[in-house]
Inverse folding.
């Protein structure tokens, strides 16, 4: 079942001192299925936050469409389905966490015993149960981030939209949030989040959509990342003679030495046996043979090291539909 669909969304803004409009989204398209964690990856200024605001209905696109469970973004039915954590959430400093969550729950239609139960369950889930009676002004950055996650999941939404949910968290806090998101996925929730912390994104996401200059240029699954590296093997050996690189030049991509250890990247899978046999015959000790896979960071850096395709340039150059009739956007 498809939960979120963003179809050919374009958005432009007008500067304070200019009548001209600058387009920042050039036809963004993506989707998220039920029970899926979809990562949204891109550098600063690529259009991630603008896309998220359009999904939430906080901004209206110049053209294109966004639907959530088949309902148009910005409508009441769509809003009821969403829990949102902004990149820089604001908290009233004089409220306690319990009071803050009670206020947020009331806005979401919760009340009475049901609201009190949800507040207690949620504070425990994010690890803040001992601090529920403390005022938020005394919370650390990481604690505030977890408080923001608590308000996002308080009303039991089926779609979570999280903008940099790991910001300000220490390693223990990041692990806790990862565990919470995995648990929510296990309950059938759909999670769409942006992050600059690539190891967390790689550990969590079923798929990752990469946005570049206002266009989603690639959508990649973890399985696809692993398949990109099939056949690449690294052999670690000790005591290699100086002529090893010359003797194995036809079979290895690279060779590096660090102290007594030598690291050899084999050119193809079928050469592994030949390389190992040569090392043994030369008196070397083979310590480890490991299959190497690229990381999400490798994919990301490769994507942005390549020039934009002609199709992407053409998409970005197309005039925005109805841009001239739109008012000023913030």
């Amino acid at each position: 079942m498809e939960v979120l669909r963003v179809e050919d969304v374009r958005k432009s803004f007008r500067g304070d001192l200019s009548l001209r409009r600058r387009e920042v989204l050039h036809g963004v398209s993506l989707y998220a299925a039920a029970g899926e964690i979809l990562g949204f990856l891109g550098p600063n200024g690529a259009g991630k936050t603008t896309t998220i605001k359009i999904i939430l209905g906080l901004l209206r696109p110049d053209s294109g469409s966004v639907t959530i469970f088949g309902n148009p973004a910005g409508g009441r039915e769509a809003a009821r389905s969403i829990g949102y954590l902004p990149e820089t959430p604001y908290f009233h400093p004089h409220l306690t966490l319990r009071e803050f969550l009670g206020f947020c729950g009331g806005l979401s239609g919760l009340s009475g015993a049901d609201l009190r139960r949800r507040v207690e369950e949620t504070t425990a889930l994010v690890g803040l149960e001992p601090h529920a009676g403390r005022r938020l002004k005394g919370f650390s950055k990481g604690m505030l981030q977890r408080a923001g996650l608590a308000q996002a999941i308080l009303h039991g939404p089926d779609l979570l939209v999280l903008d940099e949910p790991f910001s300000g968290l220490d390693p223990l806090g990041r692990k806790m949030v990862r565990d919470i998101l995995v648990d929510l996925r296990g309950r059938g929730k759909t999670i769409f989040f942006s992050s600059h912390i690539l190891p967390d994104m790689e550990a969590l996401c079923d798929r990752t959509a990469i946005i570049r200059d206002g266009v989603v240029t690639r959508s990649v699954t973890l399985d696809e990342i692993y398949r990109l590296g099939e056949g690449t093997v690294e052999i670690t050996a000790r005591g290699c003679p100086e002529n090893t690189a010359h003797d194995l030049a036809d079979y290895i991509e690279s060779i590096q030495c660090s102290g007594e250890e030598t690291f050899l990247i084999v050119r193809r899978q079928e050469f592994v046996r030949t390389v190992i046999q040569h090392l043994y015959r030369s008196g070397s000790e083979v310590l480890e043979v490991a299959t190497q896979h690229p990381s999400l960071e490798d994919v990301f850096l490769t994507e942005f090291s390549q020039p934009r395709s002609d199709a992407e340039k053409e998409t970005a150059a197309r005039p925005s539909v109805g841009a001239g009739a739109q008012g000023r956007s913030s």
Observations:
- Confidence is low (pLDDT under 50) at residues 319-330.
- The radius of gyration is 25 Å.
- The longest helix spans residues 171-186.
- The domain at 231-291 is CATH 3.30.70.100 (Alpha-Beta Plaits).
